[in-house]
Amino acid sequence: MQPRNMSMRGAVDLAAVKAAAEAAQKAEQNRAARARQAQEAGDDGAAVPPAGPLVFDVDEAGFEEQVVQLSAEVPVVLNFWAEGYAPAEQLNPVLVQLAEEYDGRFVLAMVDIRVNQQLARQLQIRDLPTVLAVVAGQLVPLFEGPAGEADVRQLLDSLIAGAEERFGIAGEVGARSGSGAPAQAAPVEPPVDPALAAAHQALDQGDLGGAIQAYRNVLSDRPADVEAKVGLAQAELLQRVRGVDPQAARTAAADRPADVEAQLTAADLDLVGGHVEDAFARLVDTVGRTAGADRDRARTHLLSLFEVIGADDPRVVKARGALARRLF
Q1: Which domain holds residue 313?
Q2: Per the record, which residues fall in region Disordered (predicted)?
Q3: Half-sphere exposure in the Cβ direction for 191 (13 Å, CA)
Q4: CA distance 57 to 69
Q5: CA-only gyration radius of the chain, Å
Q6: Nearest-CA neighbor of 299 among 274, 272, 264, 268?
Q7: Angle, to 10 degrees, between the axis of helix 246-255 and the axis of helix 260-272?
Q8: Which listed residue, 41, 46, 232, 324, has the most CB atoms within 10 A of its CB?
Q9: Does residue 107 form part of some domain?
Q10: In sequence order, what E strands does the chain have?
Q11: Is residue 326 located within the same domain as residue 203?
């Protein structure tokens, strides 16, 4: 007999539980506590205790803490069964085996309806076995009736994928059994370079001359320092446009398209004003209609603006291609 499948779209809010946000907050606290335990264990060599069992019994009294709150951290599969009822008993070892195999991507909560009749009524259990799930405090019907391992595995895969896609919840493999890699301590921030910090501070305070000199000092010691290169390009750009009348500069660029100096100033103003693509296009056009020293000056200026934005920016990549076509 094939199980009666139910999709993630059937998820409904559990009316009798706390808000999912509260559950998520507690789960985050639990994760942080385990990370601290892992870090402490790395310091003293002690073993890190697992987060909890992969398979456990649950009753009405512990439903909120054991199932609902936990569901903010990992999908919780609920297996409703009863001793002496053959179809349900036959499914139990299949689910337990899969819980161990999936090793934390979901956890299995066993619910004996004979001792949890009120919970069974609240969740409208009509047949055995019945398998539901709880994800982020929401109830997700999976199937009713007997099911083979292949069918169950397919439903579990869909549950896990849906939990991550819809709610951002993905059980951590090995976290509960202790078989996974220990949590890594937060990376240690590298020490702040005093010279670079002084350059940044000068730039933030508007001391452009001081910032330019400070960045140049850093680059004299470390010519490949990307952060210093970007800072220097920004400081030099701001210094070039300081005191420039934007309206007069743009009028001059429009009236004298062959005037390289006018185009460079207008491009600087474009970039400072946030019109990055306009600035790049202006200088690419200038490169295309000039030659000799003027062309080289426009090209070099454009490259300095690339430094301000960053080499990986898609606008820079696009402009580099346009520049290459004009040059070659």
Answers
A1: 245-328
A2: 28-49
A3: 3
A4: 16
A5: 32
A6: 264
A7: 140
A8: 232
A9: yes
A10: 12-13, 55-57, 76-81, 107-112, 130-135, 138-144
A11: no
